[in-house]
């Protein structure tokens, strides 16, 4: 078994990772597929925290496009991330992985309030810690929440696992000839305004020298290859 390059990772997952074939809702089998990939990381001794998105259930931008109050739309999105977090925890437990759900908005009957030191303690005990409800505040994306939580738990890297195999100058689904970047500095990523992650998250990682790796979640053994330090995806760093 290979030696991991990172002891503790923060994995950012979009809600689409749990969606069914039509791209919305929660598919329990899909959740179990994701859980199996996460379980593969634990076999290498890696501690894993996860921040969930909510795109499979709700996008605040859709509500705002119809005149919805921004704070209300964002709060609905935060609640949707908790639903995804509970679904992923259930899938992890079904395959024998211990997992806990923390939320930035207190809802003590279904999840633990996010407490940094408690999350670190649980990671040290081998639990997967899933963090829902973003930062708990409107106007901040789950990308920014992922960067913030990564700093707080002292993660070695932030891995954004998505449906593309790296960072492109344009949407590769719209332009198959789009330029792909294997490596960018933080400043280059900010200047290029890459769409894979928002600028606030990138700036926060830059200020704290936390590398960001963008990979395809569904590439076979991709997550494991990433934590073993193999060349995969696109990286943002110094």
Write structural notes for this entry.
The chain has helices spanning 28-42, 60-65, 70-94, 116-124, 142-152, 186-192, 199-207, 222-227; strands spanning 8-13, 47-52, 99-103, 112-113, 128-132, 157-162, 167-168, 180-181, 183-185, 212-216, 234-237. The model has no long low-confidence stretch (mean pLDDT 95). With 238 residues, the chain is of the alpha/beta class. The chain has one domain (8-237): Carbamate kinase (3-Layer(aba) Sandwich). The longest helix is centred in the middle third of the chain and has 25 residues, at 70-94.
Describe the secondary-structure layout.
Blueprint (H helix, E strand, L loop, with lengths): L7 E6 L14 H15 L4 E6 L7 H6 L4 H25 L4 E5 L8 E2 L2 H9 L3 E5 L9 H11 L4 E6 L4 E2 L11 E2 L1 E3 H7 L6 H9 L4 E5 L5 H6 L6 E4 L1
Parallel strand pairs: 1-2, 1-6, 2-5, 3-4, 3-5, 6-10, 9-11
Antiparallel strand pairs: 7-8, 10-11
Number of helices: 8
The CATH topology annotation reads as Carbamate kinase
The largest sheet is: 9 strands, mixed
Task: Please indicate the percent range of residues in DSSP E strands (runs of 2 or more).
Answer: 15-25%
Fourth CATH level, the homologous superfamily = Acetylglutamate kinase-like
Query: What is the count of distinct domains?
Result: 1
């Amino acid at each position: 078994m290979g030696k991991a390059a990172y002891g503790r990772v923060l994995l950012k997952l979009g809600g689409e990772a749990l969606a069914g074939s039509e791209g919305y809702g929660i598919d329990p089998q899909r959740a179990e597929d994701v859980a199996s990939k996460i379980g593969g990381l634990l076999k290498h001794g890696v501690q894993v925290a996860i921040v969930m998105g909510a795109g499979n259930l709700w996008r605040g931008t859709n509500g705002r496009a119809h005149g919805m109050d921004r704070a209300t739309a964002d709060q609905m999105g935060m609640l949707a991330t908790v639903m995804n977090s509970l679904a992923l925890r259930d899938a992890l437990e079904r395959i024998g992985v211990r997992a806990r759900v923390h939320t930035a908005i207190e809802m003590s009957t279904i999840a633990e309030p996010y407490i940094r030191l408690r999350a670190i303690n649980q990671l040290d005990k081998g639990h997967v810690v899933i963090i829902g409800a973003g930062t708990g505040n409107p106007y901040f994306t789950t990308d920014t929440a992922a960067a913030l939580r990564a700093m707080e738990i002292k993660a070695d890297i932030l891995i954004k696992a998505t449906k593309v195999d790296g960072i492109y100058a344009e949407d590769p689904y719209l332009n198959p000839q789009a330029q792909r970047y294997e490596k960018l500095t933080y400043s280059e990523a900010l200047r290029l305004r890459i769409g894979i992650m928002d600028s606030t998250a990138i700036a926060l990682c830059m200020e704290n020298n936390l590398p960001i790796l963008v990979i395809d979640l569904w590439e076979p053994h991709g997550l494991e290859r990433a934590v073993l330090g193999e060349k995969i995806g696109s990286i943002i760093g110094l």
